[in-house]
Design a protein that fits this description.
Elements (H helix, E strand, L loop, with lengths): L2 H11 L3 H5 L1 H6 L2 H18 L1 H4 L31 H36 L1 H15 L3 H12 L3 H27 L3 H8 L4 H9 L4 H25 L10 H8 L8 H28 L1 H6 L1
C-alpha cells in the first residue's frame, strides 16, 4: 500500500473528538449536503406515508380514465390501466427504499466480516482477497441477474443478490482500513495486554474505521436503488404486481409518445433519490478526510 493511500485511510479512520461533536452541524453548513439530505428525507417520508398521502389504491383500475394527463384528479396522470401514477410512485418508493436499505445492511455486515478477516488475520488475507477479486470480476448487473434468475424473482432474493454484488466493494474498504489500523500503537498495546481478539476487532478496529464505512454505505445505497430499478425494468426483479420505479418505467415505455408522464415521474424519483445519496456521500467523504475539507 502506498504512503498516500495509507495516510488517507488513517485520516479517515481516526476522526478527532472535536469533529465528532459538530459533525452534523458542519455537514448542514454545506449547501449541497443540506439540500441532498432534505430531498432524501422528503422522499423517504412521503414513501413511508404513502397509505395516508396517496389518493387512490395503487392497484385500483379505471379504464375510463386511462392515459389521463396530469391534472386535478390525477396529479401525475394515469397509466394504461387507469391507475394513478402519483399513488404508484409513492408506493414504489417504499419498495425501492426498503430494498436499498436492506442491501446496505446485508452488504455492510458481510463486508465487515470478510474485510476484518482479510485485514487482521494474515493467513486469511490471500484466500479472502482472491474471493473478493473473483466476485468483482463479474459486472454488477450481470451477476445480479444471474443470482435473481437462480434464486427467483422475489424481494428477498433481489436483496440477497444485490447484497452479494456489493459486499466485495465494502469488504475491500474494510480490509484496506484494517491493514492500517492494526499496526497502530493502541492495537499493539491491546494485544500485549491480552485483550481478546473479538474485543480488539470490535472496540479498537471497527470503531475507528467507521468513517470510510459510512461513506461507502451511502454510495451502496444509491447504487442498490439504481440496480433494483434496472432489474425491475428488465423484468427479472421484484414481481410486477408490486409497484417499483423500474417496473413503472418498463410498463410505460410503450406509451412514451402518448403518455410520457408514466415514465417521467418514476424516472425523476430515481434521479432525485440517487443524486441526493451521491451528494451526501461526497459531502461525508470531503468532511471526514481532513485534507479534502481543508481544500474545500
Amino acid at each position: 500500500m502506498g504512503g498516500s493511500q495509507g495516510a488517507f485511510l488513517m485520516t479517515m479512520a481516526v476522526p478527532t473528538a472535536a469533529r465528532r461533536d459538530n459533525f452534523f452541524w458542519q455537514l448542514l453548513n454545506r449547501p449541497a449536503c443540506a439540500a441532498a439530505l432534505a430531498l432524501l428525507l422528503v422522499i423517504m417520508a412521503t414513501s413511508l406515508a404513502a397509505p395516508w398521502l396517496a389518493p387512490y389504491s395503487p392497484s385500483k383500475l379505471s379504464i375510463m380514465s386511462r392515459l389521463s394527463a396530469p391534472g386535478v384528479s390525477h396529479f401525475f396522470g394515469s397509466d394504461e390501466l387507469g391507475r394513478d401514477v402519483f399513488t404508484r410512485t409513492l408506493y414504489a418508493g417504499q419498495t425501492s427504499v426498503m430494498v436499498g436499505a436492506a442491501v446496505v445492511v446485508f452488504a455492510t455486515l458481510a463486508g465487515i466480516v470478510l474485510g476484518l478477516a482479510a485485514g487482521y488475520f494474515r493467513r486469511l488475507d490471500t484466500p479472502v482477497s482472491r474471493l473478493i477479486d473473483a466476485m468483482m470480476a463479474f459486472p454488477d448487473i450481470l451477476l445480479a441477474i444471474a443470482l435473481v434468475a437462480a434464486l427467483g424473482a422475489t424481494a428477498v432474493n433481489v436483496i440477497i443478490a444485490l447484497g452479494t454484488v456489493y459486499t466485495p466493494r465494502l469488504a475491500r474498504v474494510v480490509r484496506a482500513s484494517t491493514l492500517v489500523v492494526r499496526e497502530l500503537p493502541y492495537v499493539e498495546a491491546a494485544k500485549a495486554l491480552g485483550v481478546p481478539t473479538p474485543m480488539i476487532l470490535l472496540r479498537h478496529i471497527l470503531r475507528n474505521i467507521a468513517s470510510p464505512l459510512l461513506v461507502q454505505a451511502t454510495f451502496i445505497f444509491a447504487n442498490a436503488i439504481l440496480a433494483e430499478a434496472g432489474l425491475s425494468f428488465l423484468g427479472v426483479g421484484i414481481s410486477p404486481d408490486i409497484p417499483t420505479w423500474g417496473t413503472m418505467i418498463s410498463q410505460g415505455r410503450q406509451y412514451m409518445d402518448d403518455a410520457p408522464w408514466i415514465m417521467l415521474f418514476p424516472g425523476l424519483a430515481i434521479v432525485i433519490t440517487v443524486l441526493s445519496l451521491q451528494l451526501l456521500g461526497d459531502a461525508l467523504r470531503d468532511f471526514l478526510d481532513p485534507r479534502l475539507s481543508k481544500g474545500a
